[in-house]
Amino acid sequence: MLIPGNWEFEQFEAWAPETLWTKGVKDYAINLEVEYYKGRNDYAIKEGGGYYAARFAVLEYLRKIKKQARVIIFREIYEGYIMPVGVWEVRENVRNAFKNKDRKFASLNDALNDIAKYLKVPMREYLKRSEIMVQKRLEIIPF
Known about the structure:
143 residues; alpha+beta; four-stranded mixed beta sheet; 31% helix; globular; Archaeal Nre C-terminal domain-containing protein; Nre; Nre_C
């Protein structure tokens, strides 16, 4: 999801119970990594290479359209995912997402309601953890 504004990047990675990394866990394990406009000072240890692969693909796209954005990525890993194949998969999935037709919404709430239809984890679980989606902004920046 791209939101008009200066660069910020937030990525959720939700692992279903009984996947390779969540054996014995009863609920989704949700990781979050965030980068603000001034960048990060540490390595994204919770998501590692997947974070940087997604970030790379997003930055490629933003450079192509010559814009900045507040970016939120939702990545859900389901029970059938038993063999991770590498961060290239994350990068290519993000690149493929940008090949889809843009969908524009009147509000952040409208966008989140649409996205929620495609996720298994309830949106409220992401909102509880989010640092970007809960920010209150005074400026309105057309995209």
